[in-house]
Structures are given as C-alpha cells and as structure tokens.
Amino acid sequence: MPSSFDPDPAVPVFASDPAGPVVPVSPRTGLPLIPKGAAERTRRCDDPPPEGLMAGIDQFNHGDYWDCHETLEELWRGEPNPVRYLYQGILQAGVGLYHLRRGNRRGALSKLRAARARLAPYAPACMGVDVAALRADLARILIHLDDRAPDDRAPDDRAPDAPVSLTPELAPVIRVGYGRQARD
Fold first, then answer.
1. pTM of the entire predicted model
2. Which label site among 25, 136, 141, 169 has the fewest CB atoms less than 10 Å from its CB?
3. Residue 23, domain member (yes or no)
4. What mean pLDDT do residues 55-72 have?
C-alpha cells in the first residue's frame, strides 16, 4: 500500500524533451521545474522589451494583476537568461497588488518585498523598463502598509491583518521607454 507521501502515479515526476535531458516537473502543474538562480544584470537589459513583457506591463498598468501574472509567468518560465528574474519581479509585484486589492495584508507585504528584492539588480532600467521608479513605488506602498499595523504595534507581519486596500493613488504604473543603460 503506498504511503500518503507517494506521488500520484498519474502525475509525471519527470518530463522528457527529445532535444534535451529529462527534467523534474511540478506535481501540481505538470510544468517543468525551473532551477532557482540569482537575479543578475545581463546584457539582455539593453534589448528592447519582448512582446510578452509589454503585454504583461499593459495588464499590470490597467490593474489586471491576475492576467499579468499569467502572461509573465509564461514568459519567465520560457526564458533561459537571468533577465527572466526581471519578469518574475514584475510578476511578484502584480501578485502583491492583487493580494492588496483583496485585503490580504500579509500576502501583499510578502510579495511586494520579494518583488523589490528580485528587481534590485535591474535598476535603474532594464529592457526600457524604469525599474528604479517601480521599486520606489513598491517602497511607498510598503511604507503605507507598515503605517497601518494593527493595534499601534510596531509593523509586524505576524500581526492580524489590518484593513487595507489598493487605492488609485497607491497603484503604481510601470513606465517603459527609459533610456538604454550602459553595459556593466
């Protein structure tokens, strides 16, 4: 009798690509697992933004954070270059704003902090995206959330969620077309 920890035999644990090696897949989604790596500035930052990035940014700027997540996740998963972490950082910012819109303070804090950290190597700009301005906007939102810590305690992620919401004044807009940056 299999234990409760055995993977579902109907869900593959590895995917085989005829052009490459066998890779592990997520038992939840069935998609190949992406090795975790460090975000780092790359020469690809001098490239124009790909169509998928522009689509995700348009969704983000219109407040369609769930759609932005879906669009950028596909782009992020398919990108072998470390510039994929630029896509992931924007994706995480969108997820954080989605949590904020739904009143989930903890989820918003977690994802917005992760997004700021993930985007740091790409500032001031990458692929024409004004990363420095986006990071500043995220910092402003984090300060806003920390100022609303429950019961006048010091800001604490473990504290019960205080009422929060995403107001139009808080919602950042990602600017694209920022000047090309010199290569590192």
1. 0.75
2. 169
3. no
4. 96
